[in-house]
Amino acid sequence: MMVIQALGGNRRINIHNHNSAPFVVILAGNNKSGAYAINAAKHLLNHECQVLVCLASQDDDTINTVAYQKNIFTLVGGKCIYQASSLPTKAVDIVVDGILGASQYLDKVIDENQRECIKGMMEWANGIQTPVVSIECPSGVHPYTGEIIDSNHYIKTKWTLALGLPRLGLTNSDLTGGILLGDIGIPKTIFKTLGLKPSYHHPFADKYLTSIELLQ
Predict the structure, then answer these.
(1) Which sequence spans correspond to the domains of the chain?
(2) Has this prediction a pTM greater than 0.85?
């Protein structure tokens, strides 16, 4: 939904628009955020977008949740590549960053091929002058401290999509870009049970996606 809005919504994606379909590149790591990103790729493909997934892991090394989403994506006609060197040189409308998210750190990636692919994806995304939306947290930014883990390898994003609640490290708008909060169905009673201070106010009303501001 967020990506479709960023692409221009109904102005860009409708049967009367005879321009070429929006081209979206999904950068997916071998982790939970990667699975989310490939799931988004499937929906974008179904909404008449051209979608290319670059996956950091080969089939034998892919965790179950990522493999499951990738298999569905390819079954419905999606295309996957496995090397950053295969990423396009032509114009891209938007990039989705699901490389590391909030569940993986580059220096903890044991497989050398995966690590090099991740570095290549970051360098490509930062070099093509295309808006990037990061899932949960910009890859390479620590999700709890907000610090850049490796100054040579982090995603320079335009938006960060937080799921349910923003991560503690989303404190610097220069690194996170605009923050949007997605409703993933967490019951309001959960927040009351947690006793959050100040009291949590459900921000979505009639929406499933809302922007939030950082308080300095």
Answers:
(1) 2-9+19-212
(2) yes
- Taking the C-alpha atoms of 25, 136, 211 and 46 in order, what is their torsion angle to the nearest 10 degrees? 40
Topology of the domain comprising 2-9+19-212: Rossmann fold (3.40.50)
Q: Strands 94-98 and 23-28, how do they pair? A: parallel
* Structure confidence by residue, pLDDT tens digits, 71-112: 999 999 999 999 999 999 989 999 999 999 898 999 889 899
Instruction: Please write the tens of the pLDDT for every residue from 17-43.
Output: 556 788 999 999 999 999 999 999 999
Helix 32-46 with 64-75: angle, nearest 10 deg:
10
